[in-house]
Amino acid sequence: MKVALFIPCYIDQFYPQVGIATLQLLEKLGCEVAFPLQQTCCGQPMANSGFASLSKGCDINFVENFSGFDYIVAPSGSCVLHVKEHLKDESHPEEAKKIRNSIYELTEFLTDVLKVETINTRFPHKVGLHNSCHGQRGLALSSMTERMLPEFSKPEQLLSMVKGIQLSKPKRNDECCGFGGTFCVFEEAVSVKMGKDRIKEHDANEIEYITGGDTSCLMHLEGILKRQGSKVKTIHIAEILNSSL
After folding, report:
1. One domain, residues 85 and 46
2. 56, 74, 125, 132: which has the highest count of C-beta atoms within 10 A?
3. What is the per-residue burial (b if ≥16 Cβ within 10 Å, else e) of 120-131?
4. Pick from 113, 140, 170: which residue ends a domain?
5. What PANTHER family does the annotation carry (predicted)?
6. Is residue 74 situated within a structural domain?
7. For residue 153, which phi and psi values (nearest 5 degrees)?
8. Domain count across the chain
9. Which of 201, 179, 175 is CA-nearest to residue 192?
């Protein structure tokens, strides 16, 4: 199985350890991983700000870099959803369509494609799980409380395989952290209040770490935690799953 690794901008620039953990995890689970060196932004920031027409260059570059792979995997639900729903290339429409259908968020790929049932890893800490909106509501990585359907969570399914972990969830399990891409810039006060509410509920569970599948959300929560002088840390789910393999 040949897999292309897509690393979003903010991971590349601020949290490279998440990209490294994702690469190592996929390789240890038997994947042949390639990293296209000319990859750049997927175009989501421009599209979210109302300038989708300016992201065509990102689309063309994405198609050039990720054509020909069986699967494309990224440790970011929001970027994956953007590619799935918006990637276009007028010169190569079939290639763009194939990419839209073959890109996966990391936990989705591990559960649905690799069908991982056991992971030889250990993380003996109290961890709070944060559900990011794009992954939960766009990619169906976990159930939503407003829908009367059986509960499920692909990230939680994987974390339950980790030895020593004490996993907890906030009271309002699927509420937004307030990041929302450019929302946290244009609506700073609302964004921060939403993040503080999330952290307050995690603090009630006396956790050591907050984890999730989107580094952008974790980055937002991390900033608030640091300003509060909290000892709670954030960690991407890839880092936990790769911690002691």
Report:
1. yes
2. 132
3. ebebebebbbbb
4. 113
5. LACTATE UTILIZATION PROTEIN A, UNCHARACTERIZED PROTEIN YKGE
6. yes
7. -160, 115
8. 2
9. 179
